[in-house]
Amino acid sequence: MLTCQSLWRDCVDCFSNTVSSETFQRWFEPIRLETFENNVLTLAVPHNFFLEWFEEHYGNFIIEIVRHNFPANTDVKYIIYTEQPAISVSAEKITKKDKNNKFSDFIKANFDDPANISGLNPSYTFDSFIVAGNSPNSIAKNVSMSVAEKPFNNAFNPVFIYGGVGLGKTHLLNAIGNDIRNRFPEMNVFYMQASVFMDKFINNITSNKSQEFKQFYSSADVVLLDDIQFLKGKQGTQEILYHIFNTLHHNHKQIVFTCDRPTKNLSQMGGMQDRLISRFGWGTSVGLYPPNLETRMAILKSKLTAAKRDIDPIVIEYIAERVDSNVRELEGVMSTTLANTLYQDNVDISCVQKIIDNIVANDSEVDRISYAVAEFFNLTIEDIVGKSRQKDIALARHIAMYLANTYTKCTLQKIGALIGGRDHSTVKHAIDNIRKLISTDPDMRKKVSMFEKNLSYNKKNRN
Ligand code: ADP
Ligand code: MG
To answer: Of 293, 284, 327, which Cα lies nearest the Cα of 147?
Structure first.
């Protein structure tokens, strides 16, 4: 074995003299010599994906070098590391692969469905993510597709996808994960809501398992973390994420984040470590914006095709023209309209307008207002709808209620329900308070009128 090791060292020298230092580090350093018996050199590599890629690109090269240093009729065989097995996307596979896998207990304790720990929603794919016309959202989709095609050693890592409520962040993130799983079944892909990641972290700290938690997530090939704004003020979770990020990034593993705002607004929001924010911005940031008219039409048509239903084109156009703030809302109006056609023969424009007025538009308009107010005051939407009585948060909440009352058709009761489950007298008090401030405080007058301008500007410019 000694001579065999020194022959292998000679091979390693040849590799490092021939390929670039980065390639050497990534593809040759992880290879370990296992045995040399009966003229077969057995080498161990980290996981199947590594093996596939390596054999395709360097298989002949390695045989050539090995045969130059070992006997000329030597064959090369590969196995996967045994002492540190790769985690497969399927826990079933993991259990079969290695019963003593050190992660299996962690999986059992942390995942309700150990057979599917990737957390991906299979119906969110690139095919069903529609971008039509010259929508700026094509950039986010193209970057996401490039990452899925090559989730290693690409120029985009990490990807940071930002955008408001219902614009497709979760859909796109899942589409990346699903596509990677189809292309590279052996890669370990994890999708997770940041709030779920935080809960799991807290559970593991309390059971003194934070080291295992870190090791587990650091062993992934692709980590997709949704809605990272939820980590605001959660120092412990941010700390662990920072370390996991560093390990993954150092090992050229793909990371994709989504957030309700761009990184520059994230630092203004406060409660998020600067060093983490700076890492979010290391790779590529792409925004998702309210869909243009062509996209809205295309989404509605594709939903109808998927549901094998048909409705009057005038109705489709009517919905597409009016329901313009986000896709969730568009889907809501469409499904309610379809449901109405089941028990009503004539679903005409006036019926659809009622659906828009009464069911969806108002809710999302209030959400949109709350979101705009939160962003302006560097707060999160959770602050606005939460229970905090902190002065600046309460004032922002009052402004949101005032604007919702002025700009939507919602009743005070409905506004209260949408903004943190408050009753109608609380909303009335908030509106009176802002009216009084507008009449006495020029600064407040300026702020409110700025919101008013923005709200009508956004409405006009969405097409
Ligand atoms: P976000 O995470 O940004 O709040 P989601 O990804 O949950 O938004 O999207 C809300 C709904 O709209 C989902 O059902 C999603 O499939 C759909 N959706 C969003 N964008 C598109 C799009 N471009 N094409 C088709 N469906 C979309
Ligand atoms: Mg989402």
So the answer is: 284
